[in-house]
Specification:
With 511 residues, the chain is of the alpha+beta class. The protein has 2 domains: 263 residues, BirA Bifunctional Protein, domain 2; 95 residues, Anticodon-binding domain (Rossmann fold). It contains 17 helices and 23 strands. The strands form 7 sheets. Strands 3-9-10-16-13-12-11 form a 7-stranded mixed β-sheet. The longest helix has 27 residues. It starts with a helix and ends in a 6-residue tail after the last helix. The relative contact order is 0.11. Bound molecules: adenosine-5'-triphosphate. Adenosine-5'-triphosphate binds next to strand 10, strand 13, strand 16 and helix 13.
């Protein structure tokens, strides 16, 4: 099965089992907006908690806030979003489809990369054991040609984006002979800038109405509260402020399920440091955040850094942590050294000093900031896509299993009485009542045990316990583990310890 088919199946599965629904579905949906169902919200909350604990609870010098989505409109002028939070867009005149111009070129570059990889594979087949990939890449004329072309295109793209040169960007699309994937034609409009912020009015009387924006990032809510938190929390630099919350962007091309949404959630942390020390902290947060991702257990090989060549107007260093989604490596988290740009701009626009008095150096200064900004929905997608597996079992059976890491799984334990009578449901309820304060448990007594196991596999429940007639006598249950499907007979008293170990360490093998 291709990755594309697998991804389609995952999207259907996420809907069927209550993880993610298209928004407003009975009205035919709303493009690039999604709702989280009963399983999705549990998964999302578990990810939030895992991030919050790692960032706030386990760092004495990081605290959290929850700022409002609506903010004074001048904030977005100061931050540069009113003037510069734009994407370059281009329309195909035949299909009437709209694209991000830079994305069209990036996709063209990805295709060239594919061509290069195909050449390498051909070489590998041809030369067998004697194949030397480095030598082949350095000498094969076809590879050389593609590499040279890709280098040129990439250079022109960066130059056009850095200079904000929309004419050059259009010319690049023309020169690369990029066609519309829908109409197949090269009949393009000029490239135009498109601001990504949603706006609305505040105030009940329309004449008095002021335009305000739905925040496109949570970061500014942190910056404008920098002094409030620093003073009331008696924070000493270096320190951080973290926040989880909704952000809104009127994305031009909204595709790939919950990867690019118009309403999404971010988990951001702004770390305030002494001027001159920001690049040291940038390196620290790069490594620390990568470690956090790897600790989720989705596979260490699925992550890589992508350092930015084109830096945003506020940054002096930036990198993305990319994840290998079913559609390739894409940004999951951004780590940016934002300099003192934001605080300095707010100082200028508000007329209020945004300075910190450093008792160690006896100096006042506007701190520098290193930001870590991760998309919550993209993390959900990373977890779901790494977890989803279609498996063939013995005797021609099949199952779909979500191998969600136990600590993130929406339901930790399913409690299953073998039959609906003979006191088994009561015994099962007793076990569930005892454990439900610590773990999200689900009770299920319908259908055969086999069917019930499949239902739990499909939502990623790491453990099931089955209560049978013998349980009434010996107070033992059968505990079944999701990934290995192994079953063990254990005393009821041991169940808590097994789940607890699984959730804390990821070791889910009982015994
Ligand atoms: P991209 O290049 O993919 O548009 P970005 O560089 O604009 O992302 P940032 O502004 O750095 O993204 O935002 C930080 C994080 O917020 C991203 O790494 C991503 O995980 C998440 N994010 C940004 N835009 C969206 C979106 N439209 N839908 C879902 N998550 C998003």
């Amino acid at each position: 099965m291709t990755q594309e088919d697998l991804f389609k199946n995952l999207i259907a599965h996420a809907k069927e089992y209550g993880f993610i629904f298209p928004s407003s579905e009975i009205y035919d949906g709303l493009s690039a907006v999604y709702d989280y169902g009963q399983m999705g919200v549990e998964l999302k909350n578990n990810i939030k908690r895992y991030w919050w604990d790692a960032m706030v609870r386990f760092h004495e010098n990081i605290v959290g806030i929850d700022s409002a989505i609506f903010m004074h409109p001048r904030i977005w002028e100061a931050s540069g979003h009113v003037g510069a939070f734009n994407d370059p867009l281009i329309d195909n005149k035949d299909s009437k489809k709209r694209y991000r111009a830079d994305v069209l070129v990036e996709e063209y570059l990805a295709k060239m990369e594919e061509k290069i990889n195909k050449e390498v594979e051909k070489g590998r087949k041809k030369f067998g054991d004697a194949f030397d990939e480095t030598h082949f890449r350095a000498t094969n004329p076809n590879v050389q040609r593609h590499v040279q072309k890709a280098g040129e295109v990439s250079k022109r793209l960066n130059e056009a984006l850095n200079a904000n040169d929309l004419v050059a960007l259009k010319q690049l699309i023309v020169d690369c002979e990029i066609a519309c994937p829908v109409s197949g034609s090269r009949n393009w409009t000029d490239v135009r800038q498109f601001n990504l912020m949603f706006s609305t009015q505040i105030g009940s009387v329309s004449e008095d109405a002021n335009v305000i924006y739905l925040r496109p990032e949570t970061a500014q809510g942190i910056f404008v509260n920098f002094l409030n938190v620093q003073k009331t929390g008696r924070m000493k630099i270096p320190f951080g402020i973290a926040q989880i919350g909704k952000a809104f962007r009127n994305e031009i091309v909204a595709r790939q399920f919950i990867f690019r949404m118009r309403e999404f959630e971010q988990m951001e942390m702004q770390f305030f440091v002494r001027p001159g020390e920001e690049l040291k902290w940038f390196e620290y947060w790069k490594e620390t955040r990568l470690r956090w991702h790897k600790s989720l257990g989705l596979g260490d090989g699925k992550y890589r850094f992508h350092n930015h060549e084109k830096l945003a107007h506020y940054a002096n260093a930036a990198t993305d942590i990319e994840f290998e989604f079913p559609f390739g490596f894409k940004e999951l988290e951004g780590i940016h050294s934002r300099t003192d740009f934001d605080l300095r701009r707010h100082q200028e626009f508000s007329g209020r000093k945004q300075q910190y008095f450093d008792p160690e150096t006896n100096e006042s200064y506007v701190p520098y900031v290193v930001e870590t900004s991760i998309g919550l929905d993209r993390t959900v997608l990373a977890v779901l896509s790494a977890a989803y597996a279609e498996e063939k079992l013995e005797q021609g059976e099949e199952r779909v299993v979500m191998r969600i890491p136990a600590m993130l799984a929406p339901v930790k334990l399913a409690v299953l009485p073998l039959v609906k009578k003979d006191g088994l449901p009561e015994k099962a309820r007793g076990i569930m009542n005892d454990l439900k304060y610590e773990f999200n448990c689900q009770y299920d007594e319908k259908d055969s045990i086999g069917k019930r196991y499949r239902r739990q596999d499909a939502i990623g429940t790491p453990f099931c316990v089955t209560i049978d007639h013998q349980s009434l006598d010996d107070n033992c249950v059968t505990i079944r583990e999701r990934d290995s499907m192994q079953q063990h007979r254990v005393p009821v008293a041991q169940v808590r310890g097994i789940i607890d170990k699984g959730v804390r360490t990821g070791i889910t093998q009982p015994g």
